[in-house]
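[stage:ingest] chain + small molecule (guanosine-5'-monophosphate)
[stage:ingest] validated
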Amino acid sequence: VAGEDGLRKEEISENSVVHGGIPIDNTLGNGYRPEKMDWERRRRVKIMWYMVVPQLGNITTMASIPILLLILLVGSLYSVEVNGGGGGGTVELVSTVAEQRVFDYFALALQWPPTYCSKSTKCCSQSACCRGANSPSVFTIHGLWPDYNDGSWPSCCSGSAFDEVEISTLFGALEQYWPTLSCSKSSTCHGKKGLFWAHEVEKHGTCASSVTGEEYNYFLTTINLYFTYNVTEVLFEAGYVPSNSEKYPAGGISSAIENAFHTTPQLICLNGALEEVRLCFNKDFTVRECVAKSDCPDYVSLPEFASLELNGGTTTADRSFSYHESS
Ligand code: 5GP
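[stage:predict] done
[stage:export] tokens:
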């Protein structure tokens, strides 16, 4: 049952801790307890004092002292190093009031694998598109993104590079609910190519750490949010089931989600098929409206899985594949 704050109260168990406003189920992490979060902003402030040498020769009265103090004050500058929003990286600002730009809200991006996989031209062991009958037939996680109200977002903020070991206890859940659907390696913020998880946590997660905590907690927070707002269940129960022949009104899909979660989702389409559903949250994880609008036509399809399979069951990457309807 959804509570007034939009959270499903029955999700909170003795295995849960309230983390960043949402219940965290630690059983996902094999009992691993999230480390104490580092709430401190990474902000280094360097103060540079410029020498101001006033001409003192003509100062003969006490009335000149306030003028001297004013000259000293104006002559001082602060050099503040902050994370740049929008493009990422570090920006050197000279200002007396410079602050790291604080993000406004979260978007939870969920993808519909059959639509994403329909654009794949090759198969490989890492892609969940290629799991045959075990390919995902539910919405899976794309990412949890911190966004600004003006429609832009920060990316590649300061933080450690992705470390697989940190999230090893979550692998089972991540493989199932946050798999990559691509055979290409994803770019990271450190000039390398890596896993989809590395891409997401470095590009988006680092900018969310003031709320979610760092790597492990970013993934755990996202998985728990995904379970709390079960878009697949809501759509299937409302009759929006995968079909290669039906078209559904986009407004109906939107309303079903709105009725369940009290927020309008952003729908993203690819060639008339639903590809993503995005839900937006305040920083305390209560729901809110997204800034960006849906881009779907009035009627959309929710395709069934058209699985890509590795030839002969081999798990070697980038083999040729057979493409067929799984029905
Ligand atoms: P974004 O910045 O939108 O979070 O990341 C999308 C990038 O991750 C794309 O460049 C894409 O190549 C890569 N990627 C890897 N796996 C996936 C996947 O399963 N879904 C999506 N949407 N992007 C993926």
